[in-house]
Amino acid sequence: MGRPLTDALDRPLGTLRVSVTDRCNLRCSYCMPEEHYNWLPRGELLTFEELGRLARLFTDLGVSRLRLTGGEPLLRRNLAELIARLRTVAPSADLALTTNGVMLSEQCAALRDAGLQRVTISLDTLRPDRFLELTRRPDLPAVLDSIAAARRAGFSLKLNTVVMRGFNDDELIDLVDFAAAVPAELRFIEYMDVGGATRWSADRVVSRSEILARLAARFGPIEPLPARGAAPAERFRLTDGTVIGIIASTTTPFCRDCDRARLTADGTLFTCLYAGSGVDLRGPLRGGASDAELIDRISAVWRNRSDRGAELRSTARDRGVFIPVEALRRDPRLEMHTRGG
Ligand code: SF4
Average pLDDT, whole number, for the chain? Predict the structure, then answer.
């Protein structure tokens, strides 16, 4: 294997986040607050065979972590088949899934048997009334069932909580206690002003330092754990040994170590969550391009990559909503739920 493929800031291509659908069965207000969305045409979604081929090429280029995302990935039928295919084409890759957990419990065994290793479930509140308010769906019980099922299935399990001031920032301690009891590693995520977050405002962001201060007030001194490399979460240990993570891209961006490429369900390659445009891989893929031609295309995109989206946003004056609704309507690929978060 030659020198790893690196970008213009010398960051290796290490992780591929694959959105397998732009659709979702929840409407979380920090991601999909609008009533109506323009969806990617179904006929343009990559088949499992096409996804498998692209995953093989990305792993040939050095990708060692594959994460399946959405929208809600479990809405894509027979997802276990795709996981089995990815396991075959990328036997040594770390295979993970990010899900809202609503449909996970009944699919745990099949996903596990197909070769899935790690699962991250979104859990923003433990209160049914707030879950309904946030997602416009009454599915908290299903999510809690799925967390228990994922634990029983033996997955390496993480829980993600997007913290929003005035909504769930009074549940930090309860969520830490809940996760410790599962057990699962809880990560607090700062509210991000990404494409689709059309209700975002700076005053609703609870910063990394404020989260740490609140946890320290309850749990005592908090120990930072060794550096995370390219992983988005900074990790900390509480006095009782519980480990939590914080993903602080709004106030403490980590673009300098970002090794993540993103593939939308219709085969558009994005080099950053904040990128204004991507590169189409579906066209050449369906147009008969060889592996070598696709590898050249992907390599050229990555080599020219200099994205630092969150870093640039963090210095923006009068920071408000990043992309207006009209622009999102015109190009649904600008939406976070189309890029897989
Ligand atoms: S904003 Fe872009 S460059 Fe920065 S960490 Fe996120 S995806 Fe990577």
Answer: 96
